[in-house]
Amino acid sequence: MQIGLVGLGKMGGNMRERLRNAGHTVIGYDTDPEKSDVATLADLVNQLEAPRTVWVMVPAGDPTQHVIDRLADLLKPYDTVVDGGNSRWTDDEKHAEELSKRGIGFVDAGVSGGVWGLKNGYALMVGGEKEYVDRLRPVFEALKPEGPYGFVHAGKVGAGHFAKMVHNGIEYAMMQAYAEGWELLEAVDSVDNVREVFRSWQDGTVIRSWLLDLAVDALDEDEHLEELRGYAQDSGEGRWTVEAAIDNSVPLPAITASLFSRFASRQDDSPQMKMIAALRNQFGGHAVESAKKA
Ligand SMILES: NC(=O)C1=CN([C@@H]2O[C@H](COP(=O)(O)OP(=O)(O)OC[C@H]3O[C@@H](n4cnc5c(N)ncnc54)[C@H](O)[C@@H]3O)[C@@H](O)[C@H]2O)C=CC1
Ligand SMILES: O=C(CO)[C@H](O)[C@H](O)COP(=O)(O)O
């Protein structure tokens, strides 16, 4: 099958390779000419045979909106756009509507697998009308991992990105749990080799997982993570998961706490703990520490 791929970064670049390895014809466009197969998005569209399929794999928000707006102008009825980025699921209906006014189909695809997807395959969580999803089956088949799992048509437009958002919420909480356990193990004198404890957990334990394997890889590279600063960014998925939980009155204590831990990581000092210290001092005369360096 022939497919256009917009955004050839860490994800799109490898997806192009995996699709090509499976025998598909991929025309890639990226604003970075070093990565791009064509000079413009219009060239990509012109080189595809109708009905065209264009997979968008650029950062969520404005870049994705910009590409979808341009594709709405360039594509023709019966063509299909897939948004494979980590877009907020509430954007999907808007994109589907914008495209459907011109007879263009829309499918949202939550993609998991990161930079390992080229080798291991990409797990896909897809939303959209069956007609468009079915048209994309050969592409999904090439991208997904081998074996029975790793693909779901989760429901109507938005369901794919909603499922991926919840996946990422779980990812936040799992990573936070491993990180907390690691810190506690490192904090005590009785455990000599924290890295080997983590390694031993990789077989037979209740908590073995791919994230645990990756934690061991990270500790093999830097045993006490001394090269890293304790600072973690987020790209939206955790926030949207918490927002969806509030909208649906679903308690998510672990995921919410893991999101807030990332926010705490960005502070050099804790303004709220200054207030806690001040109040303890006010009511109980408890000692405080000075902000001024000794
Ligand atoms: N890195 C990861 O582990 C995962 C990322 N994602 C999502 O996949 C999407 C892409 O992520 P990455 O590849 O990691 O990002 P990246 O930053 O490595 O690559 C993005 C690429 O898009 C290109 N680009 C930006 N605006 C463009 C435009 N208007 N037209 C054409 N190309 C444009 C950039 O030049 C860049 O090459 C994002 O939505 C991300 O959230 C999804 C799953 C996993
Ligand atoms: O989707 C992913 C993994 O599944 C991406 O790596 C995503 O960037 C992770 O979320 P965050 O950047 O908020 O940690």
TrEMBL record:
InterPro entries listed in its UniProt record: 6-PGluconate_DH-like_C_sf, 6DGDH_YqeC, 6PGD_dom2, 6PGDH_C, 6PGDH_NADP-bd, NAD(P)-bd_dom_sf, Pgluconate_DH
SUPFAM superfamilies according to UniProt: 6-phosphogluconate dehydrogenase C-terminal domain-like, NAD(P)-binding Rossmann-fold domains
Domain of life from the UniProt record: Bacteria
Keywords of the record: Gluconate utilization, Oxidoreductase
E.C. code: 1.1.1.343
Enzyme class: oxidoreductase
Pfam family, one: NAD_binding_2
Domain called 6-phosphogluconate dehydrogenase C-terminal: residue spans: 160-294
Gene3D superfamilies: N-(1-d-carboxylethyl)-l-norvaline Dehydrogenase, domain 2 (1.10.1040.10), NAD(P)-binding Rossmann-like Domain (3.40.50.720)
A GO term, aspect molecular function: oxidoreductase activity
PANTHER family recorded: 6-PHOSPHOGLUCONATE DEHYDROGENASE
Family named by the database record: Belongs to the 6-phosphogluconate dehydrogenase family.
Name of the protein: Phosphogluconate dehydrogenase (NAD(+)-dependent, decarboxylating)
